[in-house]
Amino acid sequence: MKNILIERRSIRKYDPNYKIPRKELEEMLKETMRAPSSMNMQPTRFFIIESDPYKKKLERILYGNKVQLDTSSAMILMFTDLQKYDLAENIFDLAVKKGLMPKEVRDRQLRNITNMVEDLNLSQTERTGIFDGGIIALQFMLVAKAHGYDTCPIGGFKHDELADVVGIDKKRYKALHIISVGKADEAGYESVRLNINEVAKFL
Ligand SMILES: Cc1cc2nc3c(=O)[nH]c(=O)nc-3n(C[C@H](O)[C@H](O)[C@H](O)COP(=O)(O)O)c2cc1C
């Protein structure tokens, strides 16, 4: 784990001839989904762009980041679903069925969510979705590293137009980030970090 953390760095050029096998990519996403999320609502949605027509559509809304697009095995588009609470019942029912949650807890959680959703506005839902999205994005990058692949998180794109690339409702799905993934074809470079005393205070 420590090696994965230390060795991960943004890689922007990949072997263009290497495709991550579909089964392995699915396995990586499954491992990524082990990330925690607020109330376990798992609101992040992934679109995996591997084909040239979709890469072409994506190119139109990128600011730079062309080498990642052209050489990666896949560009992972991540959105947060503002209707995430629609799945609450399914998620808790599954937990009860698997014996992981008592029925009373399921009922109480669902009641809490129903009450909370009435008071929530969309920007609050989006904010928790963005938190969850950051956590799961890093999880994906570390999972990829553990599988022998490298990644680059990409924020340089027209956020308002990402949903159009894959034809989904942009009012419901808010763009988070893009992550390129593939077999590294460069060493990348080590980046600096601030000292702990510049960012943390022990009280
Ligand atoms: C939210 C976010 C957006 C980023 N956007 C880009 C980007 O558009 N293009 C790019 O080449 N790198 C992008 N990066 C990568 C950062 O430049 C990189 O993570 C940082 O310099 C630290 O380097 P490291 O990832 O190698 O440790 C982004 C990183 C984050 C977390």
Q: Would you give an account of this structure?
A:
The protein has helices at residues 2-7, 22-32, 52-59, 66-71, 88-97, 103-119, 122-146, 162-166, 196-199; strands at residues 44-49, 74-81, 150-154, 173-182. With 203 residues, it is an alpha+beta fold. The protein has one domain (2-186): NADH Oxidase (3-Layer(aba) Sandwich), CATH 3.40.109. It has a 4-stranded antiparallel sheet. It is globular and about 55 Å long. The mean pLDDT is 96. The structure holds flavin mononucleotide. Flavin mononucleotide (FMN) is lined by residues 9-10, 12, 65, 152-156, 177, 191.
Looking at this protein, list some descriptive labels.
203 residues, alpha+beta, NADH Oxidase, four-stranded antiparallel sheet, 9 helices, 4 strands, 45% helix, binds flavin mononucleotide
Structure summarized in a few sentences:
This protein is 45% helix and 14% strand.
Tell me the number of helical segments per DSSP (H or I, 4 or more residues long). 9
> Which percent range fits the helix content?
40-55%
User: What structural class is derived from the secondary structure elements?
Assistant: alpha+beta
The sequence of SSEs as H and E is HHEHHEHHHEHEH
* Main β-sheet description: 4 strands, antiparallel
Low-confidence stretches: none
